[in-house]
Amino acid sequence: MKRLLLAAAAAVGLAAVPAQAQDYPNKPVTMIVPFAAGGPTDIIARLVAESMSRTLGQQVIIENVAGAGGTTGSTRASQAAADGYTIMMGHMGTHGAAPGLYKNLKYNPSTDFSPIGLAAGTPIIIVAKKAFPADDLKGFMAHVKANNDKITQAHAGVGSVSFTTCMLLTAQLGVKATAVAYTGTGPALNDLVGGQVDYMCDQIPSVVAQIRAGSVKAIAIALDARSPALPNLPTTKEAGLPEFQVSAWNAVFAPKNLPAPIQAKLADALSKALDDDKVKARLLDLGAVIPQGDGRGPDALAKLVKSEVERWGPILKAVAQ
Fold first, then answer.
1. How far is Cα 200 from Cα 154, in angstroms, rounded to an integer?
2. For the CA atoms of 216, 167, 248, 142, what is the dihedral angle to 10 degrees?
C-alpha cells in the first residue's frame, strides 16, 4: 500500500507541471531590471514587456533592482521561485562579464538561470559632455592622454556594460581615467548631460536621443560599419581606433529549473514582441540590432552566455592587472 501511495504521489507531481503550464500565467509577471530606470536595459525591457503582456494575457511589471553593476538584481532573480512569475532582463555585463569581475558572485550565469531568449544587440558609443574640447576620436584620445589625472569617466556600476567597455577602452588607450560609479546608466547620463563628468561608454539605445538633441557629444561608435540610427557618426575603425570593437546584448532569463512548457510560453511571447511592428520600429530607431530566427531562442542564448563568460574572463583579468 505504501508503495502504491508513493507511486500515486509521484504521478500527481508529474501531472502538476503540465497543468501549471496550461494555466500559466494566471497573475502578473515581474520582470526584474537590475539597473535604475532610464538606462538602455530598462528601455528595452519596457518595450518588450508591453508586447509580452498582450501575448501572455497578464501584465509584465518592470521592477528596477539596481546595485553592484546589476548583480544585486540578478542574484535576486536567480533565487526566485522557478514558476515563471519572476523573470529578468540581463545583459552582457550581468551574464558575461560579471564572473570575471566579482570573485564572490552569488550566481552562475550559465547554471542558475533558464534562458528565455535574446532581446536586442546594442552597439557601444563613446559619448562626451557637450563642452568636451575634442570633436572626433583622435582629438578625444589626445585630450584624454594629456589630461589623464583630471578626466572623469561615468559608469553604471562595476560589472555594467558601461564599466566593462570603458575599462577596455582605457586599457587600449593606456590611461586610467577616474571612474565615477552610479546606480545605473540613467543617473550617469544625467550627470554627463549636466557636464559633471567628462565621458562614458554605453549602449546606443540610452544615448541616441541625447546625441540627436545635441545634449552630449558623440565621439565614435564601436563597430566596423556605421549604424543606420546615427549614419553620420564615424566608427572606431574609420576614426583611428580599430581595435575597440564591442557590442552589448540584452536578454530575458528566468530562475533555473523553470518547467519547459512555461519556458516555451515566455520565449514565444518574447519572439512575438520582437516581431511586433511598433516594438521593432522603436528598437531600430534606437539603433538596436534585433536577433532573427533561431538566434533569439533559449538554446542560442545559453550558448551565447557560455561564450561571453569565456570571452570576457581573460580580457577583464588582463585589464585589471
1. 5
2. 40
User: Which domains, and CATH codes, for the chain?
Assistant: 10-121+248-320 (3.40.190.150), 123-239 (3.40.190.10)
What pLDDT shows up at residue 183? Answer: 83
Task: Report the 10 Å Cβ neighbour count for 256.
Answer: 15
Helix (H, G, I), strand (E, B) or coil at 293: helix
pLDDT score, position 233: 97
Let me know: does 50 contact 276? Beta carbons within 8 Å. no
Helix axes 185-193, 204-213, angle to 10 degrees: 20
Q: Degrees (nearest 5) of the Cα angle 274, 266, 110?
A: 100
Calpha distance 53→61 (Å, rounded): 9
Strands 247-255 and 86-91: antiparallel
d(C-alpha 266, C-alpha 269), whole Å:
5
Query: What does the alpha-carbon distance between residue 122 and residue 161 come to, in Å, rounded to a whole number?
Result: 10
Higher per-residue confidence, 45 vs 156: 45
- Cα gap 106→286, rounded to integer Å: 33
Question: What is residue 2's predicted lDDT score, i.e. its pLDDT?
Answer: 46
Q: Phi and psi for 224 in degrees, rounded to 5?
A: -100, 0
Length of the chain: 321
The strand ranges marked E within 78-189 are: 86-91, 113-129, 152-155, 178-181
**Segment 5-32 mean pLDDT:** 69
Q: Residues of 179-188 as b/e, b for ≥16 C-beta within 10 angstroms?
A: bbbbbbbbbb
Q: What's the pTM?
A: 0.85
Closest CA to 162 of 192, 129, 185: 185
- Residue 109 in 3-state DSSP? coil
Residue 85: count of CB within 10 angstroms of its CB: 17
For residues 195 and 130, the answer to whether their CB atoms sit within 8 Å is: yes
- From CA 250, how far away is CA 195, in angstroms rounded? 28
Q: E strands along 275-315, which residues?
A: none
